[in-house]
Write a structure and sequence with these properties.
- With 306 residues, the protein is mainly beta.
- Strand 10 (173-176) and strand 11 form a beta hairpin.
- Helices cover 12% and strands 32% of the residues.
- The chain has two domains: 6-136, Nucleic acid-binding proteins (OB fold (Dihydrolipoamide Acetyltransferase, E2P), Beta Barrel), CATH 2.40.50.140; 148-290, Nucleic acid-binding proteins (OB fold (Dihydrolipoamide Acetyltransferase, E2P), Beta Barrel), CATH 2.40.50.
- The strands form two sheets. Strands 1, 2, 3, 4, 5, 6, 7 and 8 form an eight-stranded mixed β-sheet that branches. A five-stranded mixed beta barrel has the order 9-11-12-14-13.
- The radius of gyration is 21 Å and the shape is globular.
Length: 306
């Protein structure tokens, strides 16, 4: 059928009601958001953001309500979609922005694609990877993997992807989203090593929309975390309290989930796998820890500073 591109959409969207089909690849995926309120009678108040791209650039796509339980898990990073009968809206200005792996990619930030059950009822098709043709010009998923030895030089809030062998995982903890509020964030701390430094990656992993992965992080698994943000305590000794925290677009993967993921082609991932082959499993097992209370960043030595 006659296709359009994201670039053409941006130029012509105001002058049309119906749009030609789109062929795009998912580059980023946000966690699922629940926006239900007691007084509003919505059956499935869910929303999820994706960043999708074709040869002309990248744009946000929003999946609404009952389409979320139906499609959210099938739309993975790297999935190619054919979209028909979608709506175009001006983009929501306050949403989080993932850092693209390809810094040269053009970003269309004024509008977003809206996928709904009606007005109009969107038709979504997933194109299997083996049927994707090179002449479609769809961009590959690119990553920003760093090694542990590179972490100390990165600025606060820098976005990166990491892979490591888990040596410690803490229990799940809760933090209030707002003071005196009823809602909590669920998170756990983990340490992962990659052989490039004596220090591990310290990872603050919030429960994303992947409970099956979050609950099964354990020592000796290969852990991949994407779209992580560097957190530095700039006040005291900056090098001692550097850690990484998940963002709204983070994805986490453990052993058993890596097959077929786009990052398996990345050079730093391949280097890490080579390093693990040189390690003795029994030696690493002796150094692993699970559970317990993990106070981080560590409180000051005396109460006056505290």
């Amino acid at each position: 059928s006659k296709l359009t591109s994201l670039g053409q959409l941006e130029m012509t969207w105001r002058s049309r009601v119906h749009f030609h089909p789109l062929l795009v690849r998912v580059l980023h995926k946000s966690r699922l958001r629940y926006y239900g309120k007691p007084e509003k009678k919505l059956d499935m108040p869910y929303q999820a953001y994706f960043e999708v791209a074709d040869g002309s650039g990248m744009m946000s796509m929003v999946l609404w309500n009952s389409l979320c339980p139906e499609w959210y898990n099938s739309m993975k990073v790297g999935t190619v979609l054919l979209l028909e009968q979608y709506a175009i809206k001006t983009s929501y200005p306050f949403k989080t922005q993932p850092t693209p792996g390809d810094s040269q990619m053009k970003r269309f930030a004024t509008i977003e694609i809206s996928l709904n059950v009606r007005d109009p009822p969107t038709k979504i098709s997933i194109i299997p990877e083996e049927m994707v043709k090179p002449e479609w010009g769809l961009p590959e998923v690119k990553y920003r993997f760093i090694t542990r030895s590179e972490l100390d030089d990165l600025p606060n809030n820098h976005s990166c992807d990491v892979i490591g062998l888990v040596t410690f995982v803490g229990r799940a903890e809760r933090a209030r989203k707002r003071e005196h509020g009823e809602d909590f964030w669920l998170y756990r701390w983990a340490h992962a090593i990659d052989g490039t430094s004596d220090q591990p990656f310290i990872l603050e992993i919030f429960a994303t929309s992947q409970p099956d992965v979050f609950e099964h992080i354990h020592p000796m698994t290969y852990l991949v975390c994407t779209q992580m943000r560097v957190v530095r305590d700039l006040t005291e000794n900056p090098s001692s309290t550097i850690y990484l925290t998940t963002s709204n677009e983070s994805q986490i993967f453990i052993t058993g989930w890596h097959k077929g993921q786009p990052y398996t082609k990345d050079t730093k991932v391949k280097n890490f796998i080579q390093w693990t082959k040189t390690q003795s499993e029994a030696d690493q097992m002796k150094k692993t820890v699970i559970g317990g209370y993990y106070p981080f960043p560590r409180p000051p030595n005396n109460f006056l500073k505290y």
